[in-house]
Amino acid sequence: MNFVNIPKETPSGVSHKTFFSKLVNQDAGYNIYLPPGYDETGEKYPVMYWLHGRGGNESSDIWVAEHIKNYNAGNAAANQMIIVFVNGTESSGYRDSPDGSLPVESIIITELIPHIDGAYRTNPNRTGRLIEGFSMGGNGAIYYAVKYPELFCSAVAYAGAFSGGSVRAEDGSYLDWENISHLFPERFENLYRKNPALVEQATAYYWIAENTDVIRRDVKIRIVCGASDFLFDRNEILHNYLNNSALPHEYESIQGVDHNIGELYKISGERGLRFHNNNILK
Questions:
Q1: Which CATH number is 14-162+204-279's, of 1.10.10.350, 3.40.50.2300, 3.40.50.1820, 3.40.190.150?
Q2: CA spacing 20 to 30 A to 109: which of 78, 87, 88, 119?
Q3: Are 107 and 20 within 8 A, CB to CB?
Q4: Nearest-5° angle of CA 6, CA 60, CA 164?
């Protein structure tokens, strides 16, 4: 696995950094955007974590920083924020592998977030911690927000590769293997098949059901998907499930857009940033 992927070029304000992960006994990479004036103000800043899609790494989507910088420059009331571009490896689904060899979720939750809060002037609380992502990363953003509502106040998913379903199977689970197996690297598939509980707990649906009341009170959710996206139905299912669970959220389907984060962010990125800004708690 490539845990360190240095970009060829970085937008203004973005730097590639590493931290040592005890879980994999090697350095892991991330990119970080520090807002204008960070070195002078002495202020603490909210942090947004960006999760890339399948096949990507921490350097895939650093262009997002330019959109956020431009949005903040044109909106005096916007919160300046730190952005951390996470390495979820190519196809982890942002979950830990069942054999422990690829503990991506644990690296992000138990190592990266504490590292960022220790190394930078952040608001180190749920009230100033945001998360968003695309495709595999959109799924990961909602999954983390609903599994760890004590860590995040706001989540935006672009064309999330959501798995599972809103209707429980006869055994009480949300499992539909045909709709979920893509989450896991092929070399781990049999390990997951042997332990259905692991698969169920790897869905956002499971944690929404577990944490409904806390999510309703503390976590704001926004879902965006192109109407021509092959994942559109999965986004619709999650949208309907949130409605049926009486969980307020924003949902936007965009006509004429397929699985393309560049188009989604160009059309809806500012609305997502406004959503985050409205949800940051002072």
A1: 3.40.50.1820
A2: 78
A3: no
A4: 130
Sequence ranges of the domains in the chain: 14-162+204-279
How would DSSP label each residue in 109-132?
IIIIHHHHHHHS-B--SGGGEEEE
Residue 210 three-state SS: helix
The residue ranges of DSSP E strands in 34-98, in sequence order, are: 47-51, 82-86
SS (H, E, C) 11-48: CCCEEEEEEEECCCCEEEEEEEECCCCHHHHCCCECEE
Token match 């190519």: residue?
Answer: 90
Task: Report whether 60 contacts 141 (CB < 8 A).
Answer: no
pLDDT, tens digit (0-9, with 9 covering 90-100), for 113-156: 999 999 999 999 999 999 999 999 999 999 999 999 999 999 99
Q: Which residues contact 70 (CB under 8 A, 6 or more apart)?
A: none
